[in-house]
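Annex B. Sample input.
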Amino acid sequence: MSKILTKKDRPAVIDEEILIPDEEVLISKTDPKGIITYANEVFCKVAGYTEEELVGSPHNCIRHPDMPRIMFEIVWQHIKDRENVMAVVKNLAKDGRYYWVVTDFVTEVNADREVTGYTAYRRPVSDKVIEAITPLYRALTAIEAIDGMEASEKFLVEYFAKRNTNYDDMVEDIIVNNCHKAEILGFGSKPSETLKQMPKAEKKSLFDKLFGIK
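Annex B, continued. Sample output.
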């Protein structure tokens, strides 16, 4: 049996990015507790781990220290409530390098609507998306380092209130406004306005195509 990866196994951070080809989709699955049960070949190649190393380990073994904890708390709450959610994430590879992805988290349920696990589909993101989200992440991680996650959550609530938005709308808006495929896929020349009027099912279908899932 392979050794279970923990926070202590995380490598020293190297300020070097791993670039992911546009057509690649990184897929992983976990059980209801967030323990990895599957990782596709692309995910393993980019992260630098074998599937044997990853399976049985908690998914946060690839968490980069530049990522604010409050963002994962928001994602976790969504998927526990059986709601699909997207996130722009900076992950840590086995050799200490980093890679950015936009992740679509899907909750898997059985016939009795009981949660059986979670699937994450990841695609590379443009530099514009990274530039748009990085200032917020830096602010949140700085707050957490000084006052903890409760303080960063308070900051984030106020941040959204001032902008009359929420986490889901913010991420969707950042992605479609910085994606060259947005207009082609049906978001129009003014994606922010289109998103506000688009039914949830139609929006989900277009994002699936954007990520290359379907």
